[in-house]
Recover the amino acids of this structure.
């Protein structure tokens, strides 16, 4: 899942900031389509690219390190995976709109969303061990809830995966996140585009 | 342009009527130790300002320390969960490795990202190249600023570990001389690795931004950052032994916690098999750091010089790709 998160923060959230720095952002706004459509295209492209990386990690971990998966509900695995990606890229669209406002903060904010988010999402350990912090992460960060749901499903019955809702509940949380983030992104992009036009900051480079 | 009196011209360049200005190429080329030090200082200051002057100090501080502290927590919690009750010696081993790693990543990314930022974003690389200072000195200076930022993160992460995580470091048992020597000697190969990556980035375009992270990830495996080299297969362990970062980390650990676990030797390690000793002592660690560091520095510099020449010949210094 780290591959998808990195793609969201580097190639999606900060993409509009990079485009602004390179002087291309005006072209995005001048194009005869909604910016959401551009972002959706970027999401699909990034998803395909990240999938190859994720697949490579799965293959290597299975063949080299002998990781064994124990899946009981394949259908739910697929549903949770798709919902996780939808929520992640929805959040990416929200962040992309915020990054339109920022200058160099965007780069540092991107850095800030890697290790700290890995930690509160339980990237290297079961999130249930983080207690309240983990619970907050599960209802706010798609990576946290998606990761935990996937773990529960592909390591079914593992004794260390405790203290979190069952995967069915987490799938519902992901569904809500996907809808909320997408709607929020649509509103934010419109509002921030208007604000940026008024401030004349769409074409300001290297700030 | 510098003009001076020609030899034997008593009037000087601005002297009497008809005085002929003479171009002093030595000054324009920025030769000499004084000019080099001045260029280094200026580029460090420039690097620091590029990094920090766009925001207020509090925000910059948060950005700078959040990453190393989170990295530290990620590893400490993981080790605590995997290893059950946390052994203080293991915790210290992991904390020191993780905290120092932040400084290393900043250091090796500095020169490479300077090349990419100045070429792709600010389009200034060609102007830096034709300035009197050599590009290598400017890149080292920019890298130095990033190392300073990384060192700040390392210091805060260590303070956090002591205050919040209860890391026990006894100042009375710390070998301060060894710590100082190791830290100073370690900065040189870190910078050399950064220069090596800058040399690569001078030649490459798309996706070059991720090279420092990718390189650091590979280096993480063979440096004994959070686990001893003994757990690796022999070829990788050997690679770790010729890696100056391994000795840098081991030297700092040896200085801070003299009786702590070793990342180089130990039961089943290649080091113990070859030397017959359990772990390298302080003098051996310093000598190994010096020798491996010197080799990496020489190699990095030679590769950089060759890369810069090729970039100039092929016109790569101002060829931007929007990456």
């Amino acid at each position: 899942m780290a591959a998808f998160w990195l793609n969201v923060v580097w190639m999606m959230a900060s993409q509009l900031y990079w485009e602004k720095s390179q002087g291309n952002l005006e072209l995005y706004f001048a194009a005869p389509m909604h910016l959401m459509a551009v972002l959706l295209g970027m999401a699909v492209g990034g998803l395909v690219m990240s999938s190859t990386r994720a697949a490579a990690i799965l293959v290597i971990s299975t063949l080299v390190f002998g990781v064994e998966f124990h899946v009981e509900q394949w259908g739910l695995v697929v549903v949770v995976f798709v919902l996780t990606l939808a929520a992640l890229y929805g959040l990416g669209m929200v962040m992309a709109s915020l990054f339109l406002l920022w200058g160099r903060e965007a780069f540092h904010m991107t850095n800030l969303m890697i290790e700290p988010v890995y930690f509160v999402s339980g990237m290297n350990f079961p999130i249930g061990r983080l207690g309240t912090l983990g619970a907050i992460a599960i209802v706010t960060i798609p990576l946290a809830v998606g990761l935990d749901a996937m773990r529960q499903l592909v390591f079914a019955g593992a004794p260390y995966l405790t203290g979190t809702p069952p995967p069915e509940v987490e799938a519902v949380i992901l569904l809500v996140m996907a809808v909320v983030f997408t709607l929020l992104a649509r509103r934010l992009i419109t509002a921030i585009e208007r604000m940026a036009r008024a401030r004349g900051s769409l074409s300001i480079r290297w700030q | 342009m510098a003009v001076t009196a020609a030899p034997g011209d008593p009037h000087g360049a601005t002297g009497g009527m008809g005085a002929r200005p003479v171009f002093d190429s030595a000054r324009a080329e920025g030769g000499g130790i004084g000019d080099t030090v001045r260029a280094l200082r200026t580029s460090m200051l420039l690097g620091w300002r590029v990094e920090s002057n766009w925001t207020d100090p509090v925000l910059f501080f948060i950005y700078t320390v959040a990453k190393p502290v989170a990295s530290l927590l990620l590893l400490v919690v993981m080790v605590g969960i995997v290893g059950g009750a946390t052994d203080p010696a293991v915790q210290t081993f992991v904390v020191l490795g993780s905290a120092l790693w932040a400084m290393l990543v900043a250091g090796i990314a500095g020169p490479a990202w300077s090349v990419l930022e100045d070429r792709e974003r600010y389009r200034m690389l060609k102007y830096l190249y034709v300035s009197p200072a050599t590009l290598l000195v400017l890149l080292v200076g920019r890298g130095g600023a990033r190392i300073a930022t990384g060192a700040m993160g390392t210091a805060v992460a260590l303070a956090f570990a002591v205050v919040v995580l209860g890391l026990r470091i006894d100042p009375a048992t710390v070998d301060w001389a060894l710590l100082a020597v190791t830290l100073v000697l370690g900065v040189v190969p870190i910078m050399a690795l950064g220069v090596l990556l800058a040399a690569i980035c001078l030649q490459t375009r798309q996706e070059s931004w991720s090279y420092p992270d990718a390189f650091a990830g590979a280096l993480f495996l063979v440096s004994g950052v959070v686990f001893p080299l003994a757990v690796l297969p022999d070829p990788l362990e050997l690679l770790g032994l010729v890696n100056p970062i391994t000795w840098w980390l081991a030297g700092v650990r040896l200085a801070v916690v003299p009786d702590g676990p070793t990342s180089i030797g130990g039961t089943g390690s290649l080091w113990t098999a070859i030397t017959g000793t359990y772990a390298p002592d302080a003098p051996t660690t310093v000598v190994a750091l010096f020798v491996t560091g010197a080799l990496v520095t020489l190699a990095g510099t030679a590769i950089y010089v060759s890369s810069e020449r090729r970039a100039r010949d092929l016109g790569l210094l101002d060829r931007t790709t929007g990456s």
About this structure: Residues 201 and 208 of chain B are 6 Å apart (CA to CA). The mean pLDDT of chain B is 84. The two ends of chain B are 35 Å apart (CA to CA).
